[in-house]
Amino acid sequence: MNDMNVPKTDSIAPADVLETLASELEELTPELRKAASYVLDNPNDVSVSSIREIADAAGVKPNTFVRMARSVGFEGYEDFRHPFREAIRRRGTDFPDRARWLQSLSRGGQLGELFAEMAACAISNIENTFAATDADAMKCAADAIVNARHTYVLGVGVNNSNARNFTYLSDMAVDTIWTIPRMGSVATDDLARADERDVLVAMTCKPYRTDVIDAVDVARELGLTIIAISDSAASPIVVGSDHAFIIDAETPQFFPSSVSTIALLETLLAFVIADAPPEVIASIERFHNRRHAMGLYQEEWKDR
After folding, report:
1. How many whole angstroms separate alpha carbon 15 and alpha carbon 63?
2. Residue 253, CB-side half-sphere exposure with 13 Å CA sphere
3. Is 276 left (phi over 0), alpha (psi -120 to 50) or beta?
4. Which CATH topology does 124-293 take?
5. Which CATH number is 14-109's, of 1.10.246.80, 3.50.50.60, 1.10.10.10, 1.10.8.100?
6. Which stretches of 61-206 are DSSP H helices?
7. pLDDT tens, 251-286?
């Protein structure tokens, strides 16, 4: 029992730890068996509860969980719970459990670690997203938008603000890009007059929104060019799309990160402007000159 070695690595799945624990159950002392049984019945508690909290729930002393962890090859309880916390961090459990995990970091005084993880994930997401595509793919998608009669940009939930930001910026140059769903509408209705002359830019990450999937299906039937932005090549909006961009949305949070989505959309817009006719630049200049003339910007600090 004590000869087994379970290294601390992100590759260990919680299910493997639980299987090992179950196989050793009969060899444990009564107190250790009580702790192990609680873990087997309540595995999600391992990731979100402190050792004192889980010991109280199991009716044993905190040190019992330390000894239980060591009995199956871990150096201590923190090593034992590491695979469970990684499963949540990598979205291996549902959103409420991830929220509880975040709260457990705060209670445990580990917000410095969370801060560092957030920064590392943001940088890594952008690096991985741009590594997964290239300028040629971006130009092809931009060409489709520039040559389209209309471009519909679809995002719901947190992606709705990402879609609206893309449309807001593009409106300075062209007036053929619209965000859907419109206020009080649904995306499938907004595509009712679309056809093969149009483009749909759609985005969704796990868990995939059915309203986005349904709208993409309708767009395909109508012959639109589909530009899909998602977090997996197996995403239902990516499969069968004309242009696809796979983004990394990793985060310690309980909802997907938008950092790489925003970065990719900003890059796509830059390609659209670079690919557009010369009068587009003149349109942007008129837009900003008018704003300056209307006093919408404060040029320098003024005493008040």
Report:
1. 23
2. 14
3. beta
4. Rossmann fold (3.40.50)
5. 1.10.10.10
6. 62-71, 77-89, 95-107, 111-131, 135-147, 158-170, 187-190
7. 777 677 899 999 999 999 999 888 776 776 666 677
